[in-house]
UniProtKB/TrEMBL annotation:
Keywords: Membrane, Transmembrane, Transmembrane helix. Residues 137-198 form the Inner membrane protein YqiJ OB-fold domain. Signal peptide: none annotated. The chain crosses the membrane at residues 12-30, 68-94, 100-119. This is Inner membrane protein. InterPro entries: YqiJ_N, YqiJ_OB. Residues 10-110 form the Inner membrane protein YqiJ N-terminal domain. It comes from Shewanella mangrovi. The keyword Transmembrane applies. It comes from the Bacteria. It holds the Pfam family YqiJ_N. The keyword Transmembrane applies.
Length: 203
């Protein structure tokens, strides 16, 4: 199996897999340091769902609706998995793999279709988070759920409105506050674009 994975015909897919693993390791260390690569890269604006797309290809692939890092990891992972799967199927049926010049051009459109399908299902939560940022939740108590928030580095929090509806919002501590780790209860104070400034909740 190792010989199959490292074969010349599988080189593009092996490289993509290595890149995904490296990004995962870097993200893990970033999380341990209280940051995240996702928030460093450019992301779509909150009102993107009503904006005109820059071009139909990026819209169809959901490249203009998901965080750049998330989309790149998704595309690279799908390309690697589909490439290995294609060559494995060919190897099992014909006892040899497809040359790169053939398999790559076969896997490219399959990856595009997979990105469209998976992107449409990944976007709903991100889109909901962006819409939730427009709800007036000043004074509401939220709990940090994902990532470590510190000044300039927002993280995800869960809050319920007066009607008991759940909202996922991006939160960062106000100036002078300490970091918020997952499980920390905070009070939302004011919204700056799509990010809520918050202070630690003292019951």
């Amino acid at each position: 199996m190792l010989e199959f994975i490292l074969s010349h015909d599988n080189l593009p897919y092996f490289v993509c897999g290595v890149v995904v693993v490296m990004l995962g390791v870097i993200e893990m260390f970033a999380r341990l340091a209280g940051a995240s690569l996702v928030f460093v890269l450019d992301e779509p604006e909150p009102n993107l769902s009503t904006a005109e797309p820059s071009n139909p290809i990026t819209q169809w692939l959901y490249l203009d609706r998901l965080p750049v890092l998330l989309w790149c990891v998704m595309a690279l992972s799908l390309f690697a998995l589909l490439g290995f799967a294609t060559n494995l199927m060919c190897y099992l049926l014909r006892a040899h793999t497809l040359p790169q010049s053939i398999s790559v051009w076969l896997v490219f459109p399959l990856t595009g279709l997979a990105c469209h399908w998976l992107g449409s299902r990944s976007w709903w939560r991100y889109d909901r988070m962006m819409k939730d940022s427009d709800v007036d939740l000043s004074g509401s108590v939220a709990v940090m759920t994902l990532g470590t928030a510190k000044p300039g580095v927002p993280a995800e929090a869960l809050v319920k409105d007066p009607d008991n509806h759940r909202h996922y919002v991006m939160v960062e501590p106000r100036e002078g506050e300490s970091v918020f780790v997952p499980g920390t209860w905070v009070v939302l104070l004011s919204r700056r674009k799509r990010v809520w400034l918050a202070t630690r909740f003292e019951p």
